[in-house]
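step 4 of 6: structure.
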Amino acid sequence: MEKIELSQKFATRLHDSLIAAGHSSSRSATGVNIDALVNLSGHSAQICRKYLRGQAIPEPLKLAEISAKLNVSPGWLLFGDSPLEKKSENVSLSKDLLHYIFISSAELYNSNHDKMDIADFLIELVQDISQIDANEEQLKKIIDLSLSSIRHFK
Amino acid sequence: MEVMTEKNIEVSPHPDFFEALFAYKNTVSNIFKDVLGLYNINHIAITYIDKLNKLLTLSSTPSLEFNLFKSNLWRFDKTYQSSWYALCNPSPWQSLYILPHYKELYQLKQIRHEYPLGLSLPVNTSDSHIIYSIASHKNCQKSQDYFATEQINFYKIGQYCNNILLSIVEKHGYDNISLNNDLIL
């Protein structure tokens, strides 16, 4: 990969990660809050602008520091080809909701369904639930609705 | 010079909108799984708009549409505005966000749900409309090429799924929305 292409793609991922971390700014031409990047990196605003314009890439230690603060991997920030790739493999859900899913879905394993299909369905359900903006009561209703779709499936 | 403009018709979610997103999850997910992965596609949703201008969506990632509609951000996404979908022109997601809410929509659909590439593809039937939303987790050159050049095949993929899903949407009063193959193929 050409160095210019690498630095431009790095800039895109840095931009997206900053927005995902809540550092957007409607006053900035780049759409991100440059002061946040200055604070995260400890570099000057001038250097941070170069990062966001794809004109420079931080040294490895600084890259690791910035990526840790943005909750992405340094490898992804530098080379990844899809945004927030690391997050796709990880799911975060409260213990209460996970417990509710385990209890509510227990009977499925005694049914005629293929166990691999059930596991795939539950993984998808957990991913969905982890992404939904709703309170616990609403999320439990969504879990019940979703599980009813597999119970009724023959 | 007179300029023709499409009149915007007010649409609103069907009363069963949120329930339908999850109540058929197993069936809908299995149908979409048949085509996910083709052309680096990771997300498909089909939105039905009936003659009463009610919206119903079936999605491979229902959390995305749930958040979009619960937050009311859908009102600022031209994907759901008749002035756009009546014209039947496929458009990248970013081009459909209405400016004061551009960042919120981009943040929700493309960063939080991790779909940097997305297309909305509308189809008109005799008295209703269908919108295919197709997106990819990848933003590599190959995916960008697919999304730029394979839109006819994206329509075919949407139509294939739509034909199987019709029995579900008919339960909610959406009838006479099957597509004539000549419209696309």
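step 5 of 6: annotate
 - Residues 82-87 of chain A have pLDDT under 50 and may be disordered.
 - The longest helix of chain A spans residues 3-20.
step 6 of 6: archive
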